[in-house]
Amino acid sequence: MSPVTEVATPPTTIKSGFGYAGGARGLLWLTWRQHRWALLGTLLLAAALVGWMTYLSLELTDLWHQCHNAYCPEDSPQGLRLAGSSSLVLTLSSLSRLVQFMPLLIGVFIGVPVLSREHEQRTLLLAWSQDVSPARWLWTKLSLLGLFVAAVTAAVAGVSDHLERLQSQVAPESLFNYLPFLNTGMLPVAISICWFAVGVALGAVLRRTLPAVFGVIAGFIGLTYFVQWRYPTLVTPLSVRRVIGAPDDGLLHNNALVVKGGMIQSGIDGPSNAFDASGRSLSGAELERLCPPANSPGATLDCFTRNHLEQHLQYQPGSRIPEFHLIVAAGYLGLAAVAIAVVWWIVRRTDLSAG
Description:
The chain has 355 residues and is mainly α. It folds into two domains: 41-234 and 319-350, no CATH class; 257-316, no CATH class. 61% of the residues lie in helices and 7% in strands. It has twelve helices and five strands. The strands form two sheets. Strands 1-5-2 form a three-stranded antiparallel sheet, with no helix packed on it. Strand 3 and strand 4 form a beta hairpin.
C-alpha cells in the first residue's frame, strides 16, 4: 500500500492589479457606485444645457442672417425679438445663469460627498484597510471624478462660448461684461474644477455633508462677487479723453469694457464726470448751471457739444479678453491646487480608528 502523498496548495494571494478590488477597475466601479446619481444628474443637466443652447444658437444665427450679418435695428421684427423683455432674451439670460451656477452644483453634489460621506458613514476604515492605500484611493477617485467634471464642463463651455459670441453679434453686448466673460473661453471648466476641489476639501475638513455644502455655497457667492468687483482692473485700464457729442470713433466697440467714466451727472455736489475744454473737472452744480435740464435729451447733448465739454474714460479693450481669461482661470486653478493639497494633508493625518 503506497503512502498517500499530500500536495500542498499554494497560498492565495490578493492581487491588486487591474480587474481586482484594489485595482483600477475596482476603484472605477466603487466610484461609480458611490457617485452614480450625482454623475447621472450632472450628465442630464449638461445634455439639456448643450441641446438648448445649440437650438438657440441656430435661432440667433438665423436672426443674424436676416439682419444681413449686422446688428439688428431696434425697430425691426428681429430687433423686437432681441428686446430686453422678450422671451428669447429671458431664455438666453436664464441659460447663462445656469452655466454660471453649474460649478456650484458640481462642488455641492460631486465634490463634498467624496470624503464627508465616508466620515459620516464611518467607512474609511473599511475602504483604506483593504488592498488599496489611502493615497491610491484618494488620487484615483479625484482623477476619475475630476476628468468627468472637466469633460462635461468642456462640452458646456464650448457651446456657451459660441452662443455668447452670437449674442454679441446680433445685439450690442460686450463679451467683456461679467456674465458673458465668465461663460466664454474655458473659464467654466476652470471654475468647475476649482469648486469640485474646494467641495472635497471642505468635506474633508468638516467631515459632515451639510456644513460643507453651506461652506461651498457661501464661498461660491463670496468669490463670485469678489471676482466681479476685481476683474476689470486686473490689468491697468487705458485712458482716453473724448469730446461729448463727437462722432463715434468706434474706440469702445469690439467688446470693450468701460471701467470708469461714461456717465455724466448734473445737479450733484460731487464731480459730474464732465470736463471743460481746458481739462478742468466740473461739479454737478456747475454743469447744471451751464446746461440746465431740458425736457428733450437731445437739447442737453447739444448744450454739451456747444460748450466743447469732454469726458474721461478708463476702459479695457476687447483684445485683452484672452489675457483676462488666463489670469482668472489661473486664480481658480491655483485655489483648486491649494484645496487638493489640503485634502492630501488631511488624508495622511486621518485617524482610521475614528472612522
